Structures are given as structure tokens and as C-alpha cells.
């Protein structure tokens, strides 16, 4: 399904950067290796650093066994209070200076890096090779194809697979600011997705929210686990059980 409908104006700030809406745009001069609507997306098991695009389904028995082994590594604990949580505790949004993660300090903010990684038919703001103003996105969460334009920015949002406030409640409140900045800007933890699906997810863990597309639910569980393992972060018992169930184990 190909669509390009609008989204609530109040959500625009979720994606809007410091750049203004362009008067003109230019096509990308080369491909980004990102997924096209025909399904060219990387399996999370083949993409442990998050630098490849998309979220391809986990399909065969061997991959599901690998997924189960990864999920089994997760420690569990209860979700703590949100006391003291603030987005600014993770650095300003989409900073290019979160050292220790791929794509840092490349001259382009994290948001536009992720749009370039996953988008097809990219067009940039005139005079820029960074600021994406339109693209075609194969949305992993809904299975739809979205023709996105910056004028309707909130139609595509950048999702933190492990939500920042979730991480705060699971121990990030005691991390260094540098580690929190890494989590907030790590390509492994970021996916451009349908804005309404992302809004519905909010700060939920897998036990409370899963992608509408059942085909990618195991892949989503794997990606959630990859992030949690990398940052030595526990998940709730219910989330771990749900993640195992999505991968058939």
C-alpha cells in the first residue's frame, strides 16, 4: 500500500530539526543502500551495528534459534520510577557529537543520517547533502510504503526501539551522560517508521506494544534485545517473555 496522507500538526516538532522547509530540493546523487519497497532490508541478526537499513523478518529455524539465544542473554528486573527523567538527560535531540556510535561526527545530524540509511528516492534541501526533504520509506512497523515530504514531517518519525524513558526506568538514570547520549543516537536503536505507529508505541516495552505487522515482530524483539545487550540493560520479565514468544520459543 502506498500512501502519503497527513499527520497531526502538533506532532511535527517530533521530527523538525533546526532547518527550515526548503524552497527547492535536489535529488540524491547516489543510493544509500537503503531498503526499497520490494523488501531490500537487513535482518537484525545480520546487522549487529545498525548501519544497514530496515528490519527484515526473521524467517527460518536457524535464525529463530539465534534470536532465542540472544533474548536468553537478557537480565530481568522490575521497571523503576520515571522520577527525574528528561529528554535532555540524553543530550540535545539528534546530536552529531555522541562519540562511540557509528555515524557520529560525520557532519550530519543523527535524524538525517537515519533517514538517509533507510530511505529511497532521497531528495535533499537545495545546497545540502545532509538534510532530507523527501523520500520513499518501506515502513517496517506497518508494512506500508510511505511517500514522505518534510512539509508533513510527523508522518515519519524516528523511533527509539528501546524508548529513552524505558531505559531510564531500567537503569540509565545511573549511567554516565556519555552513555545515555550513545543510546539516544545509536543507529542500532533507531528506525524511521510510520508516525502514528510510533505515537501509539510511546515508551512501551514489547509486552505492551508490538509492531502492527506480525511479520516483523520477531525481528523487532531481536533488535530490542540487541540494544539491551549492548548497553547491559535489563528488561522486564514480561517483556522478555513476550520477546521469546514472538520468535516462537
UniProtKB/TrEMBL annotation:
Domain GmrSD restriction endonucleases C-terminal: 109-245
Record key words, sorted: Endonuclease, Hydrolase, Nuclease
Molecular-function GO term, any one: endonuclease activity
A Pfam family recorded for this sequence: GmrSD_C
Region listing for Disordered, in residue ranges: 23-56
This protein's name: HNH endonuclease family protein
Composition bias, Low complexity: 23-44
Organism: Streptomyces werraensis
PROSITE patterns hit by this protein: PROKAR_LIPOPROTEIN
Listed InterPro entries: GmrSD_C (IPR011089)
PANTHER family: AMP-DEPENDENT SYNTHETASE_LIGASE DOMAIN-CONTAINING PROTEIN-RELATED, SECRETED PROTEIN
Amino acid at each position: 500500500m502506498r500512501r502519503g496522507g497527513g499527520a497531526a500538526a502538533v506532532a511535527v516538532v517530533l521530527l523538525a530539526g533546526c532547518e527550515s522547509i526548503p524552497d527547492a530540493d535536489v535529488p540524491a546523487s547516489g543510493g544509500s543502500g537503503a531498503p526499497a519497497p520490494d523488501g531490500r532490508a537487513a535482518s537484525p541478526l545480520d546487522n549487529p551495528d545498525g548501519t544497514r537499513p530496515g528490519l527484515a523478518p526473521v524467517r527460518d529455524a536457524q535464525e529463530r534459534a539465534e534470536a532465542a539465544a540472544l533474548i536468553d542473554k537478557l537480565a530481568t528486573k522490575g521497571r523503576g520510577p520515571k522520577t527525574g527523567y528528561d529528554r535532555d538527560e540524553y543530550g540535545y535531540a539528534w546530536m552529531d557529537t555522541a562519540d562511540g556510535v557509528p555515524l557520529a561526527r560525520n557532519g550530519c545530524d543523527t535524524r538525517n543520517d537515519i533517514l538517509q540509511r533507510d530511505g529511497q528516492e532521497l531528495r535533499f534541501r537545495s545546497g545540502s547533502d545532509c538534510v532530507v526533504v523527501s523520500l520513499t520509506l518501506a515502513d517496517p512497523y506497518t508494512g506500508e510504503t510511505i511517500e514522505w515530504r518534510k512539509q508533513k514531517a510527523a508522518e515519519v518519525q524516528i523511533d527509539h526501539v528501546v524508548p529513552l524513558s524505558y531505559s531510564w526506568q531500567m537503569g540509565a538514570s545511573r549511567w554516565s551522560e556519555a552513555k545515555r547520549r550513545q543510546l539516544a543516537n545509536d543507529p542500532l536503536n533507531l528506525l524511521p517508521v510510520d508516525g502514528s505507529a510510533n505515537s501509539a508505541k510511546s515508551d512501551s516495552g514489547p509486552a505492551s506494544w508490538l509492531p502492527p505487522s506480525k511479520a516483523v515482530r520477531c525481528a523487532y524483539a531481536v533488535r530490542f534485545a540487541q540494544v539491551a545487550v549492548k548497553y547491559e540493560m535489563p528488561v522486564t520479565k514480561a517483556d522478555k517473555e513476550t520477546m521469546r514468544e514472538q520468535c516462537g520459543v
